[in-house]
Amino acid sequence: MPELVELENIAKVYRMGKVNVQAINRISLTIKAGEILAIIGASGSGKSTLMNIIGCLDKPTSGKYLFKGADVSRLNDNKLAEMRNREFGFVFQEFNLLRRATALANVELPLIYRGGRRKRQRAMEALERVGLARRARHKPTELSGGEQQRVAIARALVNSPAIILVDEPTGNLDSVSAGEIIAIFRQLNQDGITVILVTHELSIASQMPRIITLRDGEIISQ
To answer: What is the pTM for the complete model shown?
Structure first.
């Protein structure tokens, strides 16, 4: 499999008043196309910062990031935004759905920002992939937590991304719903999508074929 993500000596320092906080410290990491893996660590270990850098939501303070062989650091903000919308899908613990919009309308949102045709059809196809087509006309308040997370996954899928980045996707779910959500990610990976799952739950990470463990902004095992 070709290398999709290549990080070389990546560091991220935040300025907190007069203090510099080292969130990521000289991380080097390669992720191949078609992988599914977990990034695990305690709160404050740097795992969400690493996810944000991989997903071009944040820029490293130093180091080199290649995505599909292209140097991400050379891209301006507009090009980074285009890459995020084209190459990455994001799924978060809090779902981040528009409360007054239907499931279908929520999934359509990335297509509206990107433009193009067949928005409604593509959104419905994404809902079908996560088993929620029958609930397309329901609003988030009419859906269970597991169903809301499925909507969020469909929204991440609708632009056919190369990578789905998942941040604590089961934290608000019961064990049955959590298992169903992880099964969806495994199926999406079998369909060819690279999946990077960030979690602090070892029970979730242990289901992945590759686990990257962070502590104090550094990789301690992988």
So the answer is: 0.91
